[in-house]
Design a protein that fits this description.
This protein is of the alpha/beta class and about 425 residues long. The protein has a five-stranded parallel sheet with strand order 10-9-8-11-12, sandwiched between helices. A five-stranded mixed sheet has the order 13-14-17-16-15, with helices on both faces.
Length: about 425
């Protein structure tokens, strides 16, 4: 039986009372590594209550002392970089180098938190009016919540969200991604080792139903979310209606415009790296290419050639250039989009659905996939697929190319 993970509240590793568990799989083999709890509403409420109770003492801790915790945390993260990278690659499917980059990006924000004695300073202005001076302070507010996606298990929850929230004097409840929580839990363990007081950081795994409570909880002051557009809109509307501060970052469909004077092979290399890096499971991937008709055939042929050379394999092997998708459900989702693309009339150039890796037949692999002659009336050319699928749109000139890109519902990365 797989290990059942505990959740982290008040400096304690707690056993959930739930009867529902999420399977955490090794993306490269399909084997179940562990199970994460669907924490109950009462357990999620307790996480908020503990964070609220920890807030006054942490708020009153001098900023230089809070920063010292971050300095110690950075040292521990540096020392554990390899182990964290292997863990992340195993549970999420990124290659080792991509996973290492994920952890390093989290460490960068911990380093930024170490600079808060300078960056958190306020402002003052004398004589703003007769007899009046103004002074601005930057103060903590209370309990903040992070709702993290599964595609960057270190960088987003333990980089973008946690370090700055707590170093500024707030306390934090993280709803880790239920299918890839082990990286965040390990980093929480290191934060505790670094001297972060009990209750300042709390980590739960739960469903949308329990997470809904975090959006409206009267003791939560703000929410940070990264994920899909539909859920992001719901998070923003619900939490702002409840008076919370909210940042909600959602999906994308980035385009690149390739003109007739582009160096074809160099452009194709860069397209391949951007489209198929992290197996396309990132909002800054490049899933759509807009190319002038005059060079389209040559560019498509070159991209296909390079894509076929890309080594797909288990995430932790040094020479793997593209790992598996995160889990069986997402593999099915991406394969569904490939089938839909064919049904919509896009021309398949390369189909990665039949890929099988010897010795890793149970892994969630989809090889690089390319579609040509994608038009604006096709959903596959508009919506985010979040997998290793590249769509090519042909245009007659620069102006039409810019128009196609600007017609996208998403901002371009």
């Amino acid at each position: 039986m797989a290990e059942r993970l505990k959740y982290f509240v008040g400096g304690e590793w707690r056993v959930s009372e739930t009867d529902e568990w999420y399977e955490i799989t090794n993306s490269s083999t399909g084997e179940v590594m562990a199970e994460a709890p669907r924490c109950t509403t009462e357990e999620v409420d307790e996480a908020v209550a503990v964070a609220k109770a920890a807030y006054p003492a942490w708020r009153d801790t001098p900023l230089p002392e809070r920063v010292q915790v971050m300095f110690r945390l950075k040292t521990l993260l540096d020392a554990n970089l390899h182990d964290l990278s292997v863990l992340l690659a195993t549970e999420m499917g990124k290659t080792y180098n991509e996973a290492r980059g994920d952890v390093l990006k989290a460490i960068e924000v911990v380093e930024l938190a170490c600079a808060l004695p300078v960056t958190m300073q306020g402002d003052s202005l004398m004589n703003v009016s007769t007899g009046f001076d103004t002074v601005t302070y930057r103060e903590p507010l209370g309990v903040f919540v992070g709702i993290a996606p599964w595609n960057f298990p270190a960088m987003i929850p333990m980089g973008w969200m946690f370090p700055l929230a707590v170093t500024t004097g707030n306390t934090f409840v993280l709803k880790a991604a239920s299918y890839v929580p082990q990286t965040a839990l390990k980093m929480a363990e290191l934060a505790q080792e670094a001297g972060l007081p009990d209750g300042v950081l709390n980590v739960v795994t739960c469903s949308r139903h329990e997470a809904e409570r975090l959006l409206t909880h009267p003791d939560v002051r703000g929410v940070s979310f990264v994920g899909s557009k539909a859920v992001g809109l719901h998070v923003y509307r619900t939490a702002t209606a409840a008076g919370k501060r909210v940042q909600s970052l959602t999906e994308a469909k980035n385009h690149a415009l390739v003109m007739r004077d582009a160096p074809i092979r160099a452009a194709a290399h860069r397209i391949i790296n951007s489209a198929f890096g992290c197996a396309g499971e990132r909002c800054m991937a490049l899933p759509a290419i807009v190319v002038e008709e005059e060079i389209a055939d040559e560019l498509v042929a070159t991209i296909k050639e390079l894509a076929e050379e890309r080594r797909v394999g288990p995430a932790w092997e040094a020479d793997t250039e593209m790992g598996p998708l995160v889990n069986a459900g997402h593999k099915e989702f991406v394969e569904g989009w490939i089938e839909k693309s064919i049904e919509e009339g896009a021309t398949p150039v390369l189909d990665g659905r039949e890929l099988s890796i010897e010795g890793y037949e149970g892994g969630y692999f989809v090889g690089p996939t390319i579609f040509d002659h994608v038009t604006e009336d096709m959903a596959c050319g508009r919506d985010e697929v979040f997998g290793p699928v590249l769509y090519i749109k042909r245009v007659k000139d620069f102006d039409e190319g810019v128009e196609v890109i600007n017609n996208s519902a998403f901002a371009n990365g």
